[in-house]
Amino acid sequence: MKTATILFCLLAACSQPREAPRAAVQVPPPDLRQKFPLQNQVSMQLVPDHVLGKSFMPGGNLAEYKHGAQQYRVFLIRADDAQKAAFLLVDWRNALSQPQYLANMGGFFGQDAGTPVYVFSKGPYVAGWVGLPQTDADRLARQFATRLN
């Protein structure tokens, strides 16, 4: 009789309805608009996930700029730590065609679907310029890097 009671208790415990798995709560990316220069800025948006449509990119800020005939975009994301930012930089290197290593910034310059991209990381941040020649992007990136503390 004891065995039957124990078996009944075990079966009853196993047949309890289980909670459905909870959906992962997506934390919005931090709003880093204060890090961006305002000069020549046309728009700013907080992208919830996949900045520039890249599957490896989390959410972050994306600004559009126009200076004379030049139109370009600047993105900035804050990863959990410097190591994760470095891994995102490697993902960028793999996404670019003919990536050139930028020793002065620890980043890469290359083409993404025929558009020039300049990307670097500093600490937990990953920043990039889309649509500018390397010399222009390098000058702006150096200035921008001083804002990333």
Primary descriptors:
Protein Transport Mog1p, Chain A; 149 residues; seven-stranded antiparallel sheet; 26% helix; 36% strand; alpha+beta; globular
How would you sum up this structure, described in words?
The chain is of the alpha+beta class and 149 residues long. The protein has 3 helices and 7 strands. It has a single domain, classed as Protein Transport Mog1p, Chain A (3-Layer(aba) Sandwich), CATH 3.40.1000. A 7-stranded antiparallel β-sheet has the order 1-2-3-7-6-5-4, sandwiched between helices. A hairpin with a 2-residue loop joins strand 2 and strand 3. The longest helix has 14 residues. The radius of gyration is 23 Å and the shape is globular. The mean pLDDT is 89.
Q: What is the element layout, followed by pairings?
A:
Layout: H1 2-14, E1 41-49, E2 58-67, E3 70-78, H2 82-95, E4 97-102, E5 107-112, E6 115-122, E7 125-130, H3 134-145
Brief description of this entry?
The chain is α+β, with helices and mostly antiparallel strands. It is built from three helices and seven strands; from the N terminus they run αβββαββββα.
Read across the widest sheet, the strand sequence of neighbours is 1-2-3-7-6-5-4
Which regions are unreliable across 5 or more consecutive residues at pLDDT < 50?
none
Q: Based on the structure given, which CATH architecture is correct?
A: 3-Layer(aba) Sandwich
Overall mean pLDDT stands at: 89
Order of helices and strands: HEEEHEEEEH
Counted by DSSP, the helix tally is: 3
Integer tally of domains: 1
* Percent of sequence in beta strands: 35-45%
Give the CATH topology: Protein Transport Mog1p, Chain A
Q: Report how far the terminal alpha carbons are from each other.
A: 71 Å
What is the CATH C-level name? Answer: Alpha Beta
What Rg do the Cα atoms give? 23 Å
Helical content (DSSP H or I, runs of 4+): 25-40%
Question: What general outline do the C-alpha atoms trace?
Answer: globular
Name the structural class: alpha+beta
| Biggest beta sheet summary | 7 strands, antiparallel
> What's the total count of β strands?
7
CATH superfamily: TM1622-like
